[in-house]
């Protein structure tokens, strides 16, 4: 398979990620076969696509006509056999190894022997999922960051059997969709993005547990300091600018005081046991009145688009 042969994309799962991924392929001109088990879930997914597109239209990134044309390229189905003509499969069902393996066993019987098969798992082992298909060299991780219709990064994860040709084709495809592909060369849990995110998360939870700063102040350090800078320069670029000798010295005394916890910390265990699951239950580190989380997400998406606009103008790196 190469980029020129790719016409139809099969998307599995119409949840948060699957609907965003279906949208970006359709907006890039591909025909999308959009599979979800339930009709109610499919309708929620299609509604999410219309709502996402509304944000893009308000921000002059998409016209109404382009949005409607993209919607027409999306063909919903509840029948797995409809995925037979797909040139590329992008799976975004529940984060459960057995479910993903069972699904790919079925797809292996349905899809063309030339199709490229991908999973959007957040951190499950790509090689283990690939073992469900007869040609694991055509299987890879294709990992998006939420919200996938806005965030440019796409990680392409090489399983132990994934061929270079499969990775190259997925890199070309991601570029065609105006995404920023990164190749993860070893099949490690969490790839690169989730590992970096959870390294920061482990330390943030440690700081809360030790009473070193409040959740609001820890979040403020990221929003008004480190996160802002990381949108321009990655940690290794920052190390080069700061001087590797300086980072070497700091690493020597600081690493030993950072959290090296190997289990989820007490603060998370206790919150989950108390039913405090964050926005979806009304409280977590903060309280959420009805509609507040949706407002935060809408505001986030508008600001992300503004930041990306500045980046594309060269105002941001
Ligand atoms: N949410 C994120 O931030 C994020 C980011 C990157 C990757 N991911 C990964 O993407 C995948 C989907 O995550 P999500 O947040 O969209 O979840 P979600 O719960 O919003 O959606 C999952 C969808 O898959 C369907 N589904 C569940 N089990 C199924 C099965 N056995 N067969 C067919 N359909 C099934 C559900 O009906 C639902 O429509 C997961 O693997 C997740 O780890 C999530």
Could you characterize the architecture of this molecule?
- With 317 residues, the chain is an alpha/beta fold.
- The protein has two domains: 182 residues, Rossmann fold (3-Layer(aba) Sandwich); 118 residues, N-(1-d-carboxylethyl)-l-norvaline Dehydrogenase, domain 2 (Orthogonal Bundle).
- The protein contains twelve helices and eight strands.
- Strands 3-2-1-4-5-6-7-8 form an eight-stranded mixed sheet.
- Helix 1 packs across helix 2.
- The longest helix has 21 residues.
- The protein is globular and about 55 Å long.
- The protein starts with 7 loop residues before the first strand and ends in a 5-residue tail after the last helix.
- The relative contact order is 0.09.
- The site of nicotinamide-adenine-dinucleotide has 21 residues, from helix 1 and helix 4.
């Amino acid at each position: 398979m190469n980029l020129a042969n790719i016409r139809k994309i099969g998307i599995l799962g119409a949840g948060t990620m699957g609907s965003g991924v279906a949208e970006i392929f359709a907006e890039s001109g591909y025909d999308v076969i959009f599979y979800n088990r339930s009709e109610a879930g499919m309708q929620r997914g299609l509604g999410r696509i219309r709502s996402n597109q509304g944000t893009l239209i308000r921000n002059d990134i998409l016209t109404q006509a382009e949005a409607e044309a993209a919607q027409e390229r999306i063909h919903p189905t509840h029948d797995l056999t409809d995925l037979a003509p797909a040139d590329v499969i992008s799976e975004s069902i529940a984060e459960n190894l057995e479910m993903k393996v069972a699904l790919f066993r079925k797809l292996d019987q349905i899809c063309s022997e030339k199709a490229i098969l991908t999973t959007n798992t957040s951190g499950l082992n790509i090689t283990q999922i690939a073992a469900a298909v007869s040609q694991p060299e055509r299987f890879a991780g294709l990992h998006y960051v939420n919200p996938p219709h806005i965030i440019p990064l796409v990680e392409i994860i090489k399983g132990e059997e994934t061929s270079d040709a499969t990775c190259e084709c997925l890199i070309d495809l991601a570029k065609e969709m105006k995404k920023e592909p990164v190749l993860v060369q070893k099949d490690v849990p969490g790839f690169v993005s989730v590992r970096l995110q959870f390294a920061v998360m482990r330390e943030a939870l440690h700081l809360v547990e030790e009473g070193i700063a409040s959740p609001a102040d820890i979040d403020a350090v990221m929003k008004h300091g480190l996160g802002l800078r990381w949108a321009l320069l990655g940690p290794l670029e920052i190390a080069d600018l700061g001087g590797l000798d300086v980072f070497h010295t700091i690493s020597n005394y600081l690493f030993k005081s950072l959290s090296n916890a190997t289990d989820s910390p007490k603060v998370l265990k206790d919150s989950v046991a108390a039913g405090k699951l964050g926005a979806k239950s009304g409280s977590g580190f903060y309280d959420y009145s009805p509609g507040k989380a949706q407002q935060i997400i809408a505001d986030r998406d508008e600001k992300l688009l503004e930041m990306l606009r500045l980046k594309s103008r060269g105002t941001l790196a």
